[in-house]
Amino acid sequence: MSVLPARVRVSRLPLPPASAVQARLRALFGETEVSGAPLLSGLSAGAVAVAGGKIIGAALHWPGGEALKLESGWRGRGIEEALQDLLAGVAEPSSSPAPSERP
């Protein structure tokens, strides 16, 4: 994982997102639709990048698809990779067996 700029933090997106977060995601992604459904419909996982209290980027996952957006001024600083890495860890089911499956 690359080193992020000092004031940037990447974290898991709690679902469902709060209304202010939903508004910012809609602003970032515009009119993006997934399989003909609105952006946040069926969202199963997400990661956000925050700088100075503002969401500057996000990676979102739906069954059958993913999308990543980042404000242009922040591109090329390792943030995209950090979002993708975190989303991969959140979107994929854990490989460890459930307690009932352990011997």
Continuous helix count = 2
Strand order of the largest sheet: 1-4-5-6
> Can you give the mean pLDDT?
84
Based on CA inertia axes, which overall geometry fits? globular
Rg calc: 15 Å
Q: Which structural category fits the helices and strands?
A: alpha+beta
Question: Could you give the distance between the termini?
Answer: 34 Å
What percent strand?
25-35%
Instruction: List the uncertain runs.
Output: 94-103
Protein name: GNAT family N-acetyltransferase
Jot down its keywords.
103 residues, two-stranded antiparallel ribbon, 2 helices, 6 strands, 23% helix, disordered C terminus, GNAT family N-acetyltransferase
Can you walk me through this structure?
The protein is α+β, with helices and mostly antiparallel strands and 103 residues long. The chain has one domain. The chain is built from two helices and six strands, in the order βαβββββα. The strands form two sheets. The chain has a four-stranded antiparallel sheet. The protein has a two-stranded antiparallel ribbon with strand order 2-3. It is globular, with a radius of gyration of 15 Å. The model is unreliable at 94-103 (pLDDT under 50).
What's the arrangement of secondary structure elements?
Elements: E1 8-12, H1 19-29, E2 33-34, E3 37-38, E4 45-51, E5 54-62, E6 65-70, H2 79-91
Antiparallel strand pairs: 1-4, 2-3, 4-5, 5-6
